[in-house]
Fold:
Amino acid sequence: GAVVSQHPSRVICKSGTSVKIECRSLDFQATTMFWYRQFPKKSLMLMATSNEGSKATYEQGVEKDKFLINHASLTLSTLTVTSAHPEDSSFYICSARERENTEAFFGQGTRLTVV
Amino acid sequence: QKEVEQDPGPLSVPEGAIVSLNCTYSNSAFQYFMWYRQYSRKGPELLMYTYSSGNKEDGRFTAQVDKSSKYISLFIRDSQPSDSATYLCAMMARASKIIFGSGTRLSIRP
Structure:
Protein backbone atom coordinates (compact mmCIF):
# COMPACT_ATOMS: atom_id res chain seq x y z
CA GLY A 1 0.00 0.00 0.00
CA ALA A 2 0.91 3.64 -0.24
CA VAL A 3 3.06 5.21 2.47
CA VAL A 4 2.07 8.13 4.63
CA SER A 5 4.67 9.43 7.04
CA GLN A 6 3.70 11.40 10.12
CA HIS A 7 6.16 13.23 12.32
CA PRO A 8 6.83 13.42 15.21
CA SER A 9 5.55 10.16 16.63
CA ARG A 10 5.59 11.55 20.16
CA VAL A 11 5.83 15.05 21.53
CA ILE A 12 5.62 16.57 24.97
CA CYS A 13 5.07 20.29 25.26
CA LYS A 14 4.34 22.84 27.92
CA SER A 15 0.93 24.39 28.37
CA GLY A 16 0.54 27.51 26.26
CA THR A 17 3.01 26.53 23.57
CA SER A 18 2.24 25.47 20.00
CA VAL A 19 3.04 22.16 18.38
CA LYS A 20 3.25 21.32 14.68
CA ILE A 21 2.61 17.85 13.31
CA GLU A 22 3.58 16.97 9.74
CA CYS A 23 1.93 14.48 7.44
CA ARG A 24 3.60 13.49 4.18
CA SER A 25 2.53 11.19 1.39
CA LEU A 26 5.76 9.57 0.25
CA ASP A 27 4.86 7.75 -2.95
CA PHE A 28 1.72 9.43 -4.21
CA GLN A 29 0.19 12.86 -4.52
CA ALA A 30 -2.53 13.39 -1.97
CA THR A 31 -5.26 15.71 -3.16
CA THR A 32 -7.04 15.24 0.15
CA MET A 33 -5.69 14.77 3.66
CA PHE A 34 -7.68 14.11 6.80
CA TRP A 35 -6.83 14.79 10.42
CA TYR A 36 -8.24 12.63 13.21
CA ARG A 37 -8.08 12.57 16.94
CA GLN A 38 -8.34 9.33 18.86
CA PHE A 39 -8.97 8.85 22.56
CA PRO A 40 -7.88 5.64 24.32
CA LYS A 41 -9.91 2.63 23.19
CA LYS A 42 -12.14 4.85 21.08
CA SER A 43 -12.62 5.15 17.38
CA LEU A 44 -11.29 7.88 15.14
CA MET A 45 -12.84 11.32 15.39
CA LEU A 46 -12.53 13.33 12.19
CA MET A 47 -11.32 16.83 12.93
CA ALA A 48 -10.92 18.32 9.48
CA THR A 49 -10.50 17.62 5.80
CA SER A 50 -7.98 19.52 3.74
CA ASN A 51 -7.63 19.73 -0.01
CA GLU A 52 -4.40 20.94 -1.52
CA GLY A 53 -4.43 24.67 -2.01
CA SER A 54 -7.74 25.20 -0.22
CA LYS A 55 -8.81 26.06 3.28
CA ALA A 56 -9.53 23.09 5.47
CA THR A 57 -13.09 22.07 6.25
CA TYR A 58 -13.53 21.56 9.97
CA GLU A 59 -16.01 19.25 11.64
CA GLN A 60 -18.58 20.67 13.99
CA GLY A 61 -17.13 21.43 17.39
CA VAL A 62 -13.51 21.63 16.24
CA GLU A 63 -11.95 25.04 16.83
CA LYS A 64 -10.31 26.14 13.62
CA ASP A 65 -8.25 28.81 15.39
CA LYS A 66 -6.85 26.24 17.76
CA PHE A 67 -6.13 23.50 15.25
CA LEU A 68 -4.53 25.16 12.27
CA ILE A 69 -4.29 23.01 9.17
CA ASN A 70 -2.19 23.81 6.15
CA HIS A 71 -2.11 21.70 2.99
CA ALA A 72 0.40 23.65 0.96
CA SER A 73 1.47 20.92 -1.42
CA LEU A 74 0.24 17.60 -2.79
CA THR A 75 2.52 15.73 -0.43
CA LEU A 76 2.44 17.71 2.78
CA SER A 77 -0.17 18.76 5.30
CA THR A 78 0.49 20.17 8.75
CA LEU A 79 -1.61 20.40 11.89
CA THR A 80 -0.59 23.04 14.43
CA VAL A 81 -2.09 22.85 17.87
CA THR A 82 -1.91 26.41 19.14
CA SER A 83 -1.74 27.42 22.80
CA ALA A 84 -1.91 23.81 23.82
CA HIS A 85 -3.61 22.79 27.05
CA PRO A 86 -3.57 19.46 28.90
CA GLU A 87 -7.00 18.61 27.49
CA ASP A 88 -5.46 18.68 24.01
CA SER A 89 -3.36 15.67 24.97
CA SER A 90 -4.37 12.90 22.61
CA PHE A 91 -3.37 10.69 19.71
CA TYR A 92 -3.54 12.60 16.42
CA ILE A 93 -3.54 10.71 13.12
CA CYS A 94 -3.49 11.92 9.55
CA SER A 95 -4.60 10.08 6.46
CA ALA A 96 -4.26 10.84 2.78
CA ARG A 97 -5.83 9.75 -0.45
CA GLU A 98 -4.85 10.33 -4.02
CA ARG A 99 -8.26 10.88 -5.56
CA GLU A 100 -11.87 11.04 -4.56
CA ASN A 101 -13.54 7.66 -3.99
CA THR A 102 -10.25 5.89 -3.40
CA GLU A 103 -8.88 4.34 -0.26
CA ALA A 104 -7.17 6.45 2.37
CA PHE A 105 -3.82 5.55 3.94
CA PHE A 106 -2.89 6.51 7.45
CA GLY A 107 0.21 7.89 9.08
CA GLN A 108 1.70 6.32 12.19
CA GLY A 109 0.05 8.83 14.51
CA THR A 110 1.42 11.41 16.95
CA ARG A 111 1.00 11.08 20.67
CA LEU A 112 0.78 14.61 22.09
CA THR A 113 1.17 15.19 25.80
CA VAL A 114 0.70 18.68 27.15
CA VAL A 115 2.11 19.25 30.63
CA GLN B 1 -28.90 5.20 15.13
CA LYS B 2 -25.26 5.38 14.08
CA GLU B 3 -24.51 5.19 10.38
CA VAL B 4 -22.08 2.33 10.99
CA GLU B 5 -22.44 -0.20 13.80
CA GLN B 6 -19.59 -2.43 14.89
CA ASP B 7 -19.42 -4.67 17.95
CA PRO B 8 -16.53 -3.38 20.10
CA GLY B 9 -15.71 -6.81 21.48
CA PRO B 10 -13.35 -7.84 22.89
CA LEU B 11 -13.31 -10.99 20.81
CA SER B 12 -10.94 -13.74 21.93
CA VAL B 13 -10.29 -16.84 19.82
CA PRO B 14 -7.64 -19.57 19.85
CA GLU B 15 -4.78 -19.50 17.39
CA GLY B 16 -5.68 -21.15 14.08
CA ALA B 17 -9.39 -20.34 14.34
CA ILE B 18 -11.35 -18.53 11.67
CA VAL B 19 -12.29 -15.05 12.80
CA SER B 20 -15.40 -13.27 11.59
CA LEU B 21 -15.68 -9.52 12.07
CA ASN B 22 -18.78 -7.64 10.99
CA CYS B 23 -20.33 -4.24 10.52
CA THR B 24 -23.81 -3.11 9.65
CA TYR B 25 -24.75 0.22 8.18
CA SER B 26 -27.82 2.25 7.45
CA ASN B 27 -26.83 4.48 4.54
CA SER B 28 -27.70 2.77 1.27
CA ALA B 29 -25.52 5.26 -0.59
CA PHE B 30 -22.31 3.67 0.74
CA GLN B 31 -20.42 2.11 -2.15
CA TYR B 32 -16.83 1.86 -0.96
CA PHE B 33 -15.91 -0.39 1.94
CA MET B 34 -12.65 -0.75 3.81
CA TRP B 35 -11.16 -2.71 6.66
CA TYR B 36 -8.29 -1.35 8.70
CA ARG B 37 -6.16 -3.00 11.37
CA GLN B 38 -4.82 -0.87 14.19
CA TYR B 39 -2.21 -1.99 16.67
CA SER B 40 -2.01 -0.19 19.98
CA ARG B 41 -0.57 3.33 19.66
CA LYS B 42 -0.17 3.03 15.90
CA GLY B 43 -2.03 4.43 12.94
CA PRO B 44 -4.58 2.20 11.16
CA GLU B 45 -3.27 0.02 8.36
CA LEU B 46 -5.45 -0.63 5.32
CA LEU B 47 -6.22 -4.34 4.89
CA MET B 48 -8.96 -4.46 2.30
CA TYR B 49 -10.73 -2.06 -0.02
CA THR B 50 -13.79 -3.13 -1.97
CA TYR B 51 -16.28 -1.44 -4.21
CA SER B 52 -19.96 -2.42 -4.15
CA SER B 53 -21.06 -5.96 -3.34
CA GLY B 54 -19.10 -9.18 -3.54
CA ASN B 55 -16.05 -10.90 -2.10
CA LYS B 56 -12.40 -10.01 -2.15
CA GLU B 57 -9.59 -12.23 -0.95
CA ASP B 58 -6.04 -11.33 -0.03
CA GLY B 59 -3.99 -14.06 1.60
CA ARG B 60 -5.65 -15.08 4.85
CA PHE B 61 -8.15 -12.22 4.65
CA THR B 62 -11.51 -12.23 2.88
CA ALA B 63 -13.83 -9.24 2.76
CA GLN B 64 -17.50 -9.67 1.95
CA VAL B 65 -20.02 -6.98 1.16
CA ASP B 66 -23.76 -7.62 1.08
CA LYS B 67 -25.38 -4.36 0.09
CA SER B 68 -28.87 -5.82 0.12
CA SER B 69 -28.49 -6.55 3.83
CA LYS B 70 -26.23 -3.55 4.50
CA TYR B 71 -23.72 -5.90 6.08
CA ILE B 72 -19.99 -6.30 5.61
CA SER B 73 -17.63 -8.92 6.97
CA LEU B 74 -13.94 -9.58 7.29
CA PHE B 75 -12.80 -13.18 7.69
CA ILE B 76 -9.35 -14.09 8.93
CA ARG B 77 -8.26 -17.68 8.30
CA ASP B 78 -5.59 -19.48 10.29
CA SER B 79 -5.50 -16.66 12.83
CA GLN B 80 -2.16 -15.83 14.42
CA PRO B 81 -1.28 -14.06 17.68
CA SER B 82 0.09 -11.25 15.51
CA ASP B 83 -3.46 -10.65 14.26
CA SER B 84 -4.37 -9.39 17.73
CA ALA B 85 -5.37 -5.77 17.16
CA THR B 86 -8.38 -3.53 16.76
CA TYR B 87 -10.17 -3.88 13.43
CA LEU B 88 -12.04 -0.91 12.03
CA CYS B 89 -14.56 -1.07 9.25
CA ALA B 90 -15.00 2.05 7.15
CA MET B 91 -17.24 3.05 4.31
CA MET B 92 -18.13 5.98 2.14
CA ALA B 93 -20.57 7.11 -0.44
CA ARG B 94 -19.39 8.61 -3.71
CA ALA B 95 -17.65 11.96 -3.15
CA SER B 96 -18.24 11.94 0.59
CA LYS B 97 -16.19 11.47 3.72
CA ILE B 98 -15.21 8.15 5.21
CA ILE B 99 -17.32 6.90 8.09
CA PHE B 100 -15.64 4.54 10.55
CA GLY B 101 -17.04 1.89 12.82
CA SER B 102 -16.07 2.00 16.46
CA GLY B 103 -13.63 -0.90 16.04
CA THR B 104 -13.55 -4.48 17.32
CA ARG B 105 -10.74 -5.54 19.63
CA LEU B 106 -9.50 -8.98 18.67
CA SER B 107 -7.24 -11.19 20.73
CA ILE B 108 -5.76 -14.43 19.39
CA ARG B 109 -4.78 -16.83 22.17
CA PRO B 110 -1.61 -18.90 21.50
User: Anything to note?
Assistant: The mean pLDDT of chain B is 94. Chain B touches chain A through 22 residues (CB under 8 Å). DSSP finds no helices and eleven strands in chain B.
